[in-house]
C-alpha cells in the first residue's frame, strides 16, 4: 500500500511531526498547500495532520470534501499545545472533528507540540493571550488549568518523536 503524510502547518509543529512520521514509514511528506489531485489518487493511505485552533483541526473540513480522497484509508493526527495526558481536551478535539461514524473508521491521534508566538498570526496569538488572562483570573484552578497557564506564558516546544509510535504502529498494520 502506498502511503503519504499530508501536513497543514502554521507554526512548524505539524510539519515536524509529518516529516518524522514519513521518515519512519519510508514515505513522502507533503504540505497540504502542495498536494495535487495526483497525490491523492496515487496513495492508498493518507495520514493527515494539522494544528488545532478553537478545537478544530486546521483544514480537516476541506480534506473531508476532496473527491479524490474517497475510498482511501485515512489516519488523522492533531497537534496542540496541551499535554499528551489532557484526556478531556483531546476527547473534545476528536469529537469536534470526527462524527461518531468517522471515529469508528478513521484512527485519530493527538500529538503534543507547543506554542510559537513568534510564528502565530495576530488572531490566534490574541486568542491565546485572552485565554491566558481568563485562566489567570479563575478561582479554584484545576491541575489542567495550571498546566495551560504554564503553556501560555511563553513559546515552547514539547514535541517528541516518541509521541508518534502509536500512529506508526497503526499505519503499519493497514
Task: Provide a count of the helices.
Answer: 8
The residue-averaged pLDDT reads 87
Give me the CATH architecture, please. Answer: 3-Layer(aba) Sandwich
**Total number of domains:** 1
Helix content: 40-55%
CATH superfamily: Flavodoxin domain
| CATH domain class | Alpha Beta
Approximately how much beta-strand content do the residues carry? 15-25%
Give the number of DSSP strands: 8
Structural class: alpha/beta
Cα-to-Cα separation, first versus last residue? 8 Å
Shape: elongated
Largest sheet: 6 strands, mixed
CATH topology term: Rossmann fold
Element-by-element helix/strand order: EHEHEEHEHHEEHHEH
Instruction: Identify low-pLDDT runs.
Output: none
- Return Rg in Å: 16 Å
InterPro entries: Flavodoxin_dom, Flavoprotein-like_sf, Protoporphyrinogen_IX_DH
Pfam family, one: Flavodoxin_5
Domain Flavodoxin: 4-141
Organism: Kineothrix sedimenti
Amino acid at each position: 500500500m502506498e502511503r503519504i503524510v499530508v501536513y497543514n502547518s502554521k507554526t512548524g509543529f505539524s510539519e515536524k511531526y509529518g516529516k518524522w512520521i514519513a521518515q519512519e514509514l519510508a514515505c513522502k511528506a507533503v504540505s497540504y498547500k502542495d498536494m495535487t489531485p495526483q497525490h491523492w489518487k496515487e496513495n492508498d493511505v493518507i495520514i493527515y495532520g494539522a494544528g488545532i485552533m478553537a478545537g478544530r483541526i486546521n483544514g480537516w473540513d476541506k480534506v473531508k470534501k476532496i473527491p479524490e480522497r474517497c475510498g482511501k484509508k485515512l489516519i488523522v493526527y492533531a497537534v496542540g499545545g496541551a499535554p499528551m495526558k489532557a484526556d478531556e481536551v483531546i476527547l473534545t478535539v476528536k469529537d469536534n472533528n470526527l462524527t461518531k461514524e468517522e471515529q469508528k473508521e478513521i484512527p485519530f491521534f493527538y500529538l503534543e507540540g507547543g506554542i510559537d508566538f513568534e510564528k502565530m498570526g495576530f488572531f490566534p496569538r490574541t486568542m491565546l493571550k485572552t485565554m491566558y488572562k481568563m485562566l489567570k483570573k479563575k478561582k479554584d484552578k484545576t491541575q489542567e488549568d495550571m498546566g495551560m497557564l504554564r503553556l501560555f506564558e511563553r513559546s515552547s516546544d514539547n514535541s517528541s518523536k516518541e509521541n508518534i509510535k502509536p500512529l506508526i504502529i497503526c499505519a503499519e498494520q493497514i
